[in-house]
Input
Amino acid sequence: MTRTKKYFLLVLTICFCHVIAMYAQNNPQQQIDSLTTVLKTAKEDTNQVRALIKLGNIYRNTDIDKCKIISEKMLLLSEKLNYQKGIAKAIYLQGFIDYSKGDFEKAKEKYTKALNIYEGMKSKTDAGQMIYNLGIIAAYTGDYVLANRNFFKALHVYESVNDNKEISDCYIVIANIYGKMGNDKKELEYHTKALKIKIELNDKCGISSCYLNIGTVNAHLLQYDSALVYSFKAYKIAEEIQNQKWMLSALGNIGAILTIQGKTKEGLGYLLKSLELAQKNGDKEAVATTTNMIGTSYYKIGNFNKAKEYFEQALAIAKSINNKSEISQSYENLASNSAEMKNYEAAYDYHKLFSNIKDSILNENNSDQISEMGTKYETEKKDSEIKLLNKDKQIQSADIKQQKIIIWFGAAGLLIVLFFSFLIFRESKQKQKANIEISKQKEIIAKKNKDITDSINYAKRIQNAMLPHRRDIWFNFPHSFVLFKPKDIVSGDFYFFHKTNRLSFIGAVDCTGHGVPGAFMSMIGAGNLNNAVSQSYDTSEILSILNKGIKTALKQTESNESTRDGMDIALCSVDIENRIVKYAGANLPLWIIRKGQTVVEEIKATKTAIGGLTEDNHFFETHEFQFQQGDTFYIFTDGYADQFGGKNGKKLMTKTFKETLLAIQNLPMKEQRNHLDNFIENWKSVAEQVDDILIIGVQL
Output
């Protein structure tokens, strides 16, 4: 992640915190003393519960352990008095404690319980707050669709009671969710709605926050002049009310935007102010981030000694708070800076440290959780199949037994009509009982299937965390798009992005299989690809290293028992300054459409896959081409061209794919993505998607 990008994400991260936290109590100790006096003198009645509620709200933001004690006392007293509001508030506070400690499942359970009580009491505002909190949990766990659904529910509740403050807070989190989903237009729309209400309420802290958010979105849209205007507005108000948090964020954004615009020295001044404020507030994470950015600014203007000084400071601070992301960035910066200072031994050592910690971060975030998801998926799938098979056998057995009884009855005749009636009655009862049992088992199986789906959805969030953020791609390639449409919940295709100081790497990868098996392969592939890029910047050598890594990871040999799984890849390195693109591919080509031309140039890939039967020392050819402004290149997997549909239910094929790209060349890249998406959906119609789809387009 680039340094400037981190400032922009900082604003959004802050806004995901509980909105009430932005407005601290003016004099909490005075209120604590007053409420403690009330508790000592009040009887055990609802007045004492109300005092406990107020005290719990104060400790919620100052001392979470004391808040826990207060909530337990509140719950016991409220249950004794059968005071529903007190019970709900106590449960909510306990949920907030779980949420603060990162136990989102327990927090979700308690918020839901409190919500049910508030809905039973017809307390709309309190119910809205619980729905809002459930949205916050969904956002933190990566389920942005559910988060937005909850925030819109809360919004409707607050609109019904005309609570403008809560309405504006809902607008802010809805905007941030749209931002996480990549919908900049909607994000800007809802931040603007929030700003309008904050101005009406004269909520200066909220106004400053909204200006920051709008400035951030404008920066993402490459509207840097507008982004600066809003960032300066945010800083002016934050300074007026002495809100250190927003002042720090605004200064960081201003410095980052000016740096992007090439005004490095001017931007450096604001970054130094931001650093001074972060140090004053004791915000070590912001200090580390800002210090790295300042070092990058000195690096850009060629003052490598000064850059080294700041990079080393950032590394020391990041280590002191064990911030692995900043440690990784510091090592990478020091490696590049050492190379510029001709200290190649130090550059090598720093790059090795950078590679090791990057692998450590990837492994910590993904490996254990993916393994657990895979084991759970396979085990529960087998259990469901076995139980369903056993029930089918029981049904068949019961039917055979009934047929024998009917045959016996026909032979016995009228003399045993009464006895037969008894048997029929008994059999009916048995079958009814069996049907009830089968129904229960079907419910169990349905629940198991839901659990499996939930597990895979969780795996999807892990896989999404592995993928580069698309805004990082847009930041480096402003005129680009990524169309990513997994066949199932998780995908065997994945896209790759890596940035060095001079080169930007971008790749499209198609692993063996799709769904859960494909996702396993994509995790292995992503880890090995990151490792390969940390060892070399040559696209040919990267694919060779990747090939060896995959074969080692999957223990692939010449033996027939060895797996033949692998992957196809198209990988490009782009040198913007010298206008050079280098491409190497394994079975996946690169297409170029020159500005103003009506033909698709194709650079063919090396005709062998990564892994599987490919030899350990196989050579993958690199192709180099010069580009002019307005040229566009595309890399993609085979899912788009292989999709069945159209009038005759046939494959779309590469010919139609090329014709479609040529037809949309005059459109902006985002509109090209939307056109390709709509085209494949219309082509597919009611047919099933046959494979994962991935297309990356970059206009240079």
Summary: The chain has 24 helices and 13 strands.
